[in-house]
Amino acid sequence: MFNNLSDKLDKALHVLKGHGSITEVNVAETLKEVRRALLDADVNFKIAKQFTTTVKEKALGQDVLTTLQPGQLMVKIVKDELTELMGGDAEGINLSGTPSVILMSGLQGSGKTTFSGKLANYLKNKKTKKPLLVACDVYRPAAIDQLHVVGEQIGVEVYSDKGNTDPVAIAQAGIAHAKANGHNVVIIDTAGRLAVDEAMMTEISNIHAAIKPQETLFVVDSMTGQDAVNTAKAFNDVLNFDGVILTKLDGDTRGGAAISIKSVVNKPIKFIGTGEKMEAIDVFYPSRMADRILG
Ligand code: GDP
User: Per the database record, which ranges form the SRP54-type proteins GTP-binding domain (predicted)?
Assistant: First the structure.
């Protein structure tokens, strides 16, 4: 994951790691390299610039140059800042409702259906949860079938109503079905379009307003780089969602989305998808990700 970025940051910081004492020039050059590495990873220009400015300020504030191991301290400052940029402490999802309703949003192909299945499986394995999946894509019958396949695979019931063209009504009926059948979590998979458009935004915001979910998640393909960040912004403006799911981190994504998204929409990344299989889901821990990136 993010091998290229890791290599570049490692190279940038390597100069400092070996030095007993470092100079301001060392620091300035290193930060320039760090910024270049972030830009290469598709991190937004402003974010990369702010990042290095903050690191520099912290380094000056902690009198890095006069400490015993200035290189190590610099690496720590960079790591802490990267963690902060990606979200600070890990945050869970809100499962307080009876049932707890989780609404999925995102573009077509982002991995919503796959992630709905993964999350249902993840929660089901927690034993106290009995999830229900609800298929609200009224445009693509194949999407409904796909959710049924996923549900069968993980042994989770799927509620659907093929032929019904009102996603709000399906979502409401799904929640009623959950209540009547002892499901304590409802995961609602919605339709996505290939690009952000008004009709899709109106539809998802209507569903959101009608069912008032405990948790609204935005699913995004990390391979789409800066586009991922722009799409997140568009969805957040309409839904004020609670968290981000970054999918396809197993691919050769450069990592820019993972690093930038939190500071643009100010919402935590909650889970990541790391493969097509139902088990390929991980809670997102910013500090672990920073460790992984910085080795
Ligand atoms: P949806 O249109 O948003 O519901 O997207 P799908 O769930 O149908 O996913 C689109 C494609 O991406 C499918 O081929 C999935 O198998 C694949 N996919 C989803 N999540 C991941 C992931 O984390 N890693 C990889 N490699 N593929 C994924």
Answer: 268-281
